[in-house]
Structure formats: C-alpha cells, structure tokens
Amino acid sequence: MNIHSFSKFKHNNQKISMVTCYDYWSAEILNTSDVDCILVGDSLAVVMHGFDSTVHATTEMMELHVAAVARGAKDKFIIADMPFLSCSKGIEVAMDTVHRLMAAGANAVKIEGDTHQIDIIRHIVDAGVPVMGHLGLTPQSIHNLGGHKVQAKDEAKSAQLVESARALEEAGCFAVVLECIPTKLGSCVSLRLNIPTIGIGAGPHTDGQVLVLQDLLGTNPNFTPKFLRRYADSHGVIKNAVNRFHGDVVEQEYPSLAESYK
Ligand code: KIV
Questions:
Q1: Average pLDDT score over the chain
Q2: Which member of 179, 251, 253, 259 is catalytic?
Q3: Whether the model pTM is above 0.85
Q4: Active site residue 179
Q5: Does residue 258 share a domain with residue 227?
C-alpha cells in the first residue's frame, strides 16, 4: 500500500483496514499480516503509558514509538498522530513535529480537528507530507467534549461535520478518520467525499475501519464500547501463560534438564 492506494481502494469499493501499533514486536507481527496500514496513534499515551487521555502524548513519545514501529513494519504504510497542541502552537512547531515524525519513519501524519486546522494542513500537504484528517470524537478535545460520547447527533452538527470533511478533502487530506458518529452520518460523509473515510464507531458504510490493536486482541476485559469486536482473549491467554510459568517454577518443573546447559 502507498499513498495512491487509498483513492484506488475507494474507487474500487475495496475496504481499507487499519490498526494501531506502538512497538517493535507487534509491528513485526503486523508486517506479516494482511492489514492495509498502521496508525501510531496518540492513544499510546493511554494504552502504553497508562495516562487517562491522549492529551499526555508528547512529540518525544510519538517519535520513539514511530521509530520502533517503522523498524518492525518495514513493508506497511505508517501514519503517525500529531500530538496534542502541536498544530496550535504555530507553523514552526507544527512543521518541526511533522519533520520529527517523518524522520522517525512515518509515511503520513494524522491531525485531529475541525476547520481551524485547515491552513496548517494545507501547508503540510504543500510541503510534500500526506495528511489524514480526524473528525467526530476527537479525543485530544476530550475536556471540551465532556467525555467519550457519540458526536454530531443532531442535524446542525451533522451538517457541520459534512462541511468539515469536505474542507479537509479540499485542503489536500488523503483520507479522514470518522470516530463515534451515527451510522447514517458515516455513510453520508463517505458518499460525499472522493477520499476514503476510515471509521471507528461510525458504522459499516465507511470506506475502511480502524481499531486499536490491544482492543481487538482483548487485552482489557473492562473496555467494552459498543463498536468494539474482540478477535481474541489476549488477557486470558497472557494471564494463563504467565500463571503456568509461575506454577512450573514453584513446583520445580521448569526448567527441565533438556532445557538446561551441560
Ligand atoms: O489514537 C488513536 O488510536 C486513534 C484511533 C482511535 C483512530 O486516533
């Protein structure tokens, strides 16, 4: 997959799959998988570092994780999130952040937010860097949104979101993530745009779907949003394996002589 594949997929009615990835070992696994592209999401602040929101992701964190993923997933198209406020501190900070993420191995950046980011998006695209937009529930604005809620539920807000999506396309975005919006709106935006939409909690009609890798693997049994489908019980698998190791050590069944050096 390269930057041109996104519009080809859309025009061939071929759905795009994207998963998040934050580290080398899972990147190596994803590199051998069929998934179309990888997002080094700022959700790593929550999933990998235990913070309560993505507001805590910094450029240093993003850069470190992008570099690890790029070393592991050499054949995949990698999109990196621009961290909280990096686009609101002026063009120099924004371009410095873009530079650091691309130098770390990203193929594109993702920017959360509405039309107030348009000028900066145009500038980044003009500089030769592909930009993915992100509308609907934008977790960097969690304090403004008042929590993780479905967005754009009324007509006015829906119309505004459609306009924002069109503005992102016009500014040069190659795709746009739609997070936690009604199914009908996910469908409507996808029909109105020439660039692909990639949904998370946006229904089945978007041009692609994205999930956080750990969520689809089921590492956290307490995280149960409506949109999430679990494809594995990693929490159970990991806990069971570690408990078996513990049991073998306590019972002196590990290591055996065959697992020891002469
Ligand atoms: O940071 C992230 O993981 C994301 C996805 C949920 C789209 O932005």
A1: 97
A2: 179
A3: yes
A4: yes
A5: no
